[in-house]
């Protein structure tokens, strides 16, 4: 990964560049990194604060040869790789909030956005977008995000080298991706559950099919989170907004 690396100064979103390159046939592992994004994108149509030089704003082209419904597995794999790498590097108490936000003391330091294109029920390519708030300061965030977002710098009191962060993450990511392709998703489930801060606490979930309250108890083989409802039934949820513990 990163054999072909495109490092830009200012872009709208590295996701757009990676997607255009993937359409043109860019090979797996091609990376797009920017110093600054002026229209950084988050999940659920939200924006992503990406000020110049202060974070890792990166998109990678993946070409996994798996059916389309495996996309959630790749999201969870990416969260595990990033969490393991950042914990090792910084020793900060980082956990994963389902599906793929990394949190320190309940505040977000990193987000992952997977966008994919499919053909005949198989993934043609996946763009894995990774945003890591490395050296942002409080003044970099709009006031309404201050109680929800943090950075490695704010949480640790020191600045971090972005290239170290990128290099360590890519190493971890490659290892896990290799194991995943060799051995399947089981290992990722175990690692994700061990790093998760979302299990065992009752939460409200807003899904495309409506709201529910339940207790997340783990992942299933496809990458859905298993929610135990008040009547004891267990429901797999693929996509939702998960609230704070009730
Ligand atoms: C989220 O948690 O909502 C996902 C945030 C993903 C942000 C990254 S930064 C690099 C890539 N380019 C974007 O525009 N978004 C992703």
UniProtKB/TrEMBL annotation:
Reaction(s) catalysed by this chain's protein: biotin + L-lysyl-[protein] + ATP = N(6)-biotinyl-L-lysyl-[protein] + AMP + diphosphate + H(+)
GO terms of molecular function: ATP binding; biotin--[biotin carboxyl-carrier protein] ligase activity; DNA binding; transferase activity
Enzyme's top EC category: ligase
Residues binding biotin, per UniProt: 37, 41-43, 108
Gene Ontology CC entries for this record: cytoplasm
Domain BPL/LPL catalytic, chain residue ranges per copy: 1-181
GO biological process: protein lipoylation; regulation of DNA-templated transcription
Protein purpose: Acts both as a biotin--[acetyl-CoA-carboxylase] ligase and a repressor.
Protein name, entry field: Bifunctional ligase/repressor BirA
């Amino acid at each position: 990964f990163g054999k072909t690396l495109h490092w830009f100064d200012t872009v709208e979103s590295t996701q757009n560049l990676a997607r255009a390159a993937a359409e043109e046939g860019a090979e797996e592992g091609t990376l797009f990194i920017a110093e600054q994004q002026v229209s950084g994108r988050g999940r659920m149509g939200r924006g992503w604060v990406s000020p110049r030089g202060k974070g890792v704003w990166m998109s990678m082209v993946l070409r996994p040869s798996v059916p389309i419904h495996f996309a959630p597995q790749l999201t969870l794999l990416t969260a595990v790789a990033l969490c393991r790498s950042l914990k090792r590097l910084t020793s900060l108490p980082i956990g994963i909030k389902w599906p793929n936000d990394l949190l320190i003391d309940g505040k977000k330091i990193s987000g992952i956005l997977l966008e994919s294109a499919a053909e005949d029920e198989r993934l043609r390519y996946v763009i894995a977008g990774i945003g890591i708030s490395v050296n942002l300061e409080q003044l970099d965030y709009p006031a309404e995000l201050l109680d929800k977002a943090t950075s490695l710098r704010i949480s640790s009191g020191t600045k971090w080298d972005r290239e170290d962060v990128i290099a360590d993450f890519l190493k971890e990511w490659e290892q896990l991706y290799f194991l995943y392709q060799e051995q399947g998703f089981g290992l990722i489930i175990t690692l994700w559950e061990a790093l998760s801060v979302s299990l065992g606490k009752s939460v409200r979930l807003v899904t495309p099919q409506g709201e529910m309250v339940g207790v997340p108890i783990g992942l299933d083989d496809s990458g859905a989170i298993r929610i135990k409802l008040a009547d004891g039934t267990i429901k797999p949820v693929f996509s939702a907004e998960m609230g704070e513990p009730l």
